[in-house]
Amino acid sequence: MTTTDINNWTRRDFEKLPCRKWDEDIGIFDDLVILPARITIISQGIYRLRCWLAGLLHLDRPPIYTIDGLHDSGYRCMDFIAVKDEKPICRLSRCSDVIHIEGIGGLGYDWLARYNEVRVLVPPREWNVDCLKRSGLLRLFNHRGMRVGHALSSFEIYSLGKKEK
Description:
- The chain is α+β, with helices and mostly antiparallel strands.
- It has a domain at 6-37 and 77-159.
- It is 16% helix and 27% strand.
- It has helices spanning 11-15, 41-56, 111-115; strands spanning 29-36, 78-84, 87-91, 98-101, 128-131, 138-148, 154-159.
- Strands 1, 2, 3, 4, 5, 6 and 7 form a seven-stranded mixed β-sheet that branches.
- The radius of gyration is 19 Å and the shape is globular.
- The chain starts with 10 loop residues before the first helix and ends in a 6-residue tail after the last strand.
- The mean pLDDT is 81.
């Protein structure tokens, strides 16, 4: 892609970005583009054929996640593109079926070290979602910046606190 304006990027442009290692810390970034997995008609057809054969041979149905792009939960996997200063950096996950904003439980990044207990009240964060002009992909952002957890089955994303930026 020659332009750095993510509004002019296509889905294929985003898919060509390099992937981070699952436990690599890429630091702070500004935006997150949500990239749902592609599910092809061919993989759906193969799955239906396997189901038909399983029924014919009185075998167990194959699990739904054998369709490329589906998580073992049956939901579609998502990848996420980190964007810093309007420039896409890398792909982040490729294996998650859910996003946990402010982490699992909503307590924020490194909550145990900051609070030393489970908090009942967590300061509110500003989150925004819009839709990119050309690709139609969703973009998640806030005005403080964000960081992510490891690339696991559930994807955790955190906004920065006032002192972190």
